[in-house]
Amino acid sequence: MIPFTKAHACGNDFLIVTEEAARSAAGDDWAALTRRLCARNTGVGADGVEFFAWMGPKKGRIRLHNADGSIAEISGNGTRCVAAWMAEALGSKPGDDLEILTDAGPRVCHVNALYTKEGFAAEVTAKMGVPTFAERTVRLGGGLEIAGAEVSTGNPHFVIEVENPKFTVAGRAWQTIGAEICVHPDFPNQTNAEFVRIVGPTEIEIRIFERGVGPTTSSGTGSSAAAAAVLAMKRCRSPLRVVAPGGPQTVTWDGPGKELMLTGPATLIARGEAW
Fold first, then answer.
1. 87 in helix, strand or coil?
2. What percentage of the chain has pLDDT greater than the value 90?
3. How far apart are CA 275 and CA 262, in angstroms?
């Protein structure tokens, strides 16, 4: 049996499994284990699994596998979910800092608030590193050219600005465009795709097609990348409210060369054991 905790951040859900439990159950084949656990109809169901190991009193290491078994460098939402899990395990208090080592580097998570009335939830501000930004155009099948911004927040993103509430691009659904961009040969390691509609000077709305997952209700790194794109182009100003279908997050960024900060909720929703 494999003990797990299920958590979500704005509907973006993850299973937290210790490395010890994973090795005991599946040896080194964590990809197959992830696909089995994340299956929505035959498994527990999740967008990915965060495999965790303690590295110190307030320090842990995670390895993220997407629902399809592929390895991702980092998830902003997944990292916050792990921070909430650590906070509960440690009996943390608001003001505490937790360090989480990811494949994109270390991330410090600051616990802003804890909510224990109904379950366990936390508001966490995560240091997301220094994003990189470059405008580029991608040519899709049929010759359609999509202008956007290539952004790295520790993992790859392609951000496209739209002007309509349905997030269509050249009359095509954002899900269709996202699926094609995700595996486009211009991105040899694939990419995540975000579609951004500017609501006002301090608010944007986004849709996310996540590499290895598909459409998701939220993405922490996607929210960070979308915000970095519009802030770098001076289309909005910081702090910026980023609204995805699963709910809002807040990005604070002072511009190129500076570290980006992401604030949002994370909630523990279930514990159990799986075969």
1. helix
2. 98
3. 35
- Residue-wise pLDDT for 242-254, tens only, equals 999 999 999 999 9
- Residue partners of 236: CB distance under 8 A and separation at least 6: 198, 200, 201, 202, 203, 204, 227, 230
Contact call for residues 86 and 122 (beta carbons, < 8 A): no
Q: Do domains 2-127+264-274 and 132-259 have the same CATH topology?
A: yes
**Residue that is written with structure tokens 């965060």 in the block:** 50
Q: What's the CATH class of domain 132-259?
A: alpha beta
H-only helix segments in the chain: 19-26, 30-38, 76-90, 174-182, 220-232
Q: Which residue has the tokens 């909510």?
A: 115
Thinking of the domain 2-127+264-274, which architecture would CATH place it in?
A: Roll (3.10)
CA pair distance 41, 43, nearest whole angstrom: 6
Place of tokens 């159990």: 272
**Model pLDDT for residues 183-229, shown as the tens digit of each residue:** 999 999 999 999 999 999 999 999 999 999 999 999 999 999 999 99
Beta bridge partners of 209: 193, 215
Nearest to 43 by CA among 65, 15, 10, 76: 15
Tell how strand 12-18 and strand 48-56 pair up. Answer: parallel
**Residue 214 CB neighbour total at 10 angstroms:** 16
Domain boundaries, the chain: 2-127+264-274, 132-259
Question: What does the alpha-carbon distance between residue 45 and residue 43 come to, in Å, rounded to a whole number?
Answer: 5
Helix (H/G/I), strand (E/B), else coil: 66: strand
